[in-house]
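Q: Hi! First time doing this. I have a protein sequence and I read that you can turn it into a structure. Is that right? Here it is:
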Amino acid sequence: MPAAQSPRTGVGYRKLAALLLGIGLLLPAPAIWAQSNPPVATQHQLQTLEMRVERVERLLDSGVLTEMLRNVDDLQSEVRQLRGQVEQLENELRNIRARQRDQFRNLDERIGLVEGDLVAERSPMPEALPVDEPLPDADEQESYETAFNRLMGGDYEDAIRELERFMERYPDGVYSANALYWLAEAKYARGDYEAALIDFEAVRDRFPDSEKAADALLKLGYSHFELGNTDQARAALEQVLEDYPGTTLSRLAQDRLRRLDGQ
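A: Yes, that's right. Below is the predicted 3D structure, encoded as structure tokens:
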């Protein structure tokens, strides 16, 4: 009977070692990596994760994160409110700019009407009169010039009072047609379009042969436009085009008709 073999030198040990080596080769890489690292590293990682979880739990228990989330919600709400205010301010700014454009356009139109009369109105003899027309007396001329200068200075309230006083004293005077027209202009500039409309109509009714009758027709269209009387405004402006083609009045009437049509 053969002698017993040592486990380390016998065939059985060699077979066991070969078997273990084969199993090691067949194991996947993570398993090999795990076998090559001591268990102390894995335990350290678990402890680190536990510490981080504990910190998060303490934050949740203390309400810090909840407060932070509430602050974020408040900030988002404030941002939405600010955006709404910005949009509102932008709309108001657009409306202000639109009103300014209208005011500048109206001023330009008024200047266009005044330019032809300004030099003559400020002179001692405001307008050339036909030879058969009576000359105004000194009081009438002074009264008219005083009222007109108030108007040109932008003092519409005083201008209206002076012009109304002039019309009471000189209803059929040399400057009555002009005074009545500028009275209507002062009311128009003040924004009293209904009162201006009445006086512009009075210019055409009482002084149809006056040079101011044509200007009054244009301003009738303007006044109806401001009051929203579309049909009346269009009728007056188109009459200006028909009666005074190729003139400054015609150009101004055409511009206002384009605005009426929304162009």
